[in-house]
Amino acid sequence: MSTGNGNGQGSRAEETQRALSTVRRQLAAVSGRKRMEVLLESGHARALVRSLPAEDLYFTIMEVGLDDAVELVQLVSPEQFRTFVDLGAWRRDTLDTHAALAWLRAARGEGGEDFLKKLRKSDAEVLQLIVRAYTTLHDLEEDPDVNPAGVTMETPEGRYLVEFHGLEGVELTTLRTLLTDLIADNPFEAIRFLEATRWDVPGELEEAAYRFRSARLQDLGFPPLEDAVRLFSRVDPGPGPSPEVGAALVAQRDQPDYLEAAFSGLSEQERDNLEAELRHLANATLVAEVEEPGDMDAIRRVGEMARDYLLLGLEHLTGGQPSRAVEVVRDTEMQRIFQVGFSLTLALKYRADRLMKTPLAEVDGAPLLFPEEAVAVEALRRKRPRRTLKVPGAEPVPFRSRRELAASEEVLTRAEAQVALLGALLGGTPAAAREVLARFPEEPRVLGMDRFFAAAVAQALLEGRVDPRPLPRTQRAELGRQLFTGTPDAPRLQPDVAARARNVLEPVVPESARAELRRRVDMILARLLEEVGEAFLQEGTLDSIVSILLPMEGNER
After folding, report:
1. Does residue 389 register a pLDDT over 50?
2. Which residue, among 124, 103, 112, has the nearest Cα to 171 in the 3D structure?
3. What pLDDT, on a 0 to 100 scale, did the predictor assign at position 244?
């Protein structure tokens, strides 16, 4: 009989857990405001709210806004409320007393036993820090004639006069009400609280409160920093897809969602376990990035980064086959999948680092790279390697597919060729490079390698030799004639201009960089045609505006 009852109880517990898991997934699929409405309109709102993870409720409240979510805050358990304060009222290791007061104001509502339970469960050190920040406690036994200006309140037994400062409006009302509630709940304990607040050292109070908070966050799945940073350890990703499959992955336009493919093939229990793993992974990533656990912007940003590394790792481990995602997730911890994705990007970072450590990779702080590649290499060399977007001013973003890795590998290949190309045009040694660059009135970073290269092409056409320098005034018209033909309505490049420039420059450039030389010659000639071809054929000279593309004597930018 007892076995039967036990099985029945176990079965009911499992059914309850499954029902809660279903509700959580349904809630996660809707917006924060709709999620809150569903919770509040439930026939068992209090029980449902208190069954949910505190951090999930916190995120809902932050999406909606604390002022609009007070009804939800008042339904939570004392333990859940304490978690809200842990997540939302700290900035690194410092308590934000204004934020803590806001949470207390939201929780109180009309007061009552529910609020008192939350108050009792709160860390006394947190409450003391709030009171110390905005009050001065006068002991009337020591100084019965004290009469400070401003807002005050006397404790009922006549022991203390509380002088308020630094607050006004609702914050002042909240703190006065808080003290009134503490005194009404237990006058004797309230006096002991005020006495401790008066004499305890603030630094020690904050240190103790932070220690308690850190321990609770660890219980929630936020590991210590020294453990969290191991998440970004390099691992051997193992062999990638075959060259044929890899090429197909790079060519595909739509990126499969490997996480969604994994979830769709798991049982309900497996999905619950995977969600827990993902939550722990996201928390560890947040800690490793030294972000606040309650910072919603950081949570979104770091959450997207974690997802991107997981997608990249899953694509690699499945060989680009979404149908294998379930198998991989069942056999591999999510942390390992994350590390595989991250390690794939590290390979690009190490390659970029090696390039920029070569003797002629930069001169006086200016990389020997053209603008697009310089920005891309800089993004790859970050602690968390990123890829650049072809959108002016856009921030670099994490990698999420092999196609994006392949695109950055191509950029690195061009960058390696550019360092060899530009280094050769500069004379092949740091000393020679500085001597050549000294011919230009601008610092190398201001000059830019694109304008330097244009000067090298111009001199190759005019002088038939490798001699980069600003274009002399006396040769402006001649360079225009070397470059352009046709009419102002239909300007064209001279038929042999690209070949003549290449023939002069190629002999000093390593074989490995000649393809990039040809590409860059074609690019600068095409741009000169587009920007100044028509004007030259109309006026017979190169206007000074061409100095934007080509350094010219007397036209420093």
Report:
1. yes
2. 103
3. 64
C-alpha 341: how far from its chain's center? 16
DSSP state at residue 362: E
Residue partners of 92: CB distance under 8 A and separation at least 6:
292
* Spatial separation of the C-alpha atoms in residues 72 and 67, rounded to whole Å: 10
Question: Which residues, in sequence order, are CB contacts of 123 under 8 Å at separation 6+?
Answer: 82, 209, 212, 213
Structure tokens at 264: 């769709």
Measured CA to CA, the distance from residue 67 to residue 74 in angstroms comes to 12
Q: Which of 375, 365, 370, 522 is nearest to 433 (CA)?
A: 365
CB 235 within 8 A of CB 343: yes
Q: Summarize pLDDT for 210-251 with one digit per residue, the tens.
A: 999 999 999 998 999 999 999 999 999 988 766 666 566 566
Q: Are 125 and 89 in contact (CB under 8 A)?
A: no
Contact 497, 457 (CB under 8 A): no
Amino acid found at 64: V
Tokens of 166: 């630094």
Cβ contacts of residue 70 below 8 Å, gap of 6+?
A: 106, 107, 109
Q: Under a CB-based contact definition with an 8 Å cutoff, are residues 546 and 475 in contact?
A: no
What kind and span of H or E run contains 405? Answer: helix 402-425
pLDDT attached to residue 13: 60
Encode pLDDT of 157-169 as tens digits. 899 999 999 999 9
The answer on pLDDT for 274 being more than 90 is: yes
CA–CA distance, 445 with 121 (Å, rounded to integer): 59
Q: How confident is the model at residue 545 (pLDDT cuts 50, 70, 90)?
A: confident
- Segment (H or E) for 209: helix 202-220
Least confident of 246-250, 274-278, 437-441, 483-487: 246-250
Total length of the chain: 557
CA dihedral 426, 427, 430, 435 (to 10 degrees): -70
Per-residue pLDDT of 87-141, as tens digits, reads 999 998 999 999 999 999 999 988 789 999 999 999 999 999 999 999 999 999 9
Which among 450, 425, 453 is positioned nearest to 509, based on CA atoms? 425
Largest CA distance in the chain: 108
Paired residues of 493 in beta bridges: 484
Q: What is the spatial distance between Cα 74 and Cα 70, in angstroms, rounded to a whole number? A: 6
| DSSP states along 154-185 | E-TTSSEEEEE-S--HHHHHHHHHHHHHHHHH
- The pTM of the full predicted model, rounded to 2 decimals, is 0.82
Residue 307 pLDDT: 95
* Mean of the per-residue pLDDT values of the chain: 91
Contact 71, 40 (CB under 8 A): yes
DSSP labels, 373-397: HHHHHHHHTSSS--B--SSTTPPPB
Residue type, 379: A
| Predicted local distance difference test score (pLDDT) of residue 268 | 86
Q: If you search the block for the tokens 């004007």, which residue do you land on?
A: 535
- Whether the CA torsion 508, 514, 520, 523 is positive or negative: it is positive
**Angle 169-185/113-121 helices, nearest 10 degrees?**
90
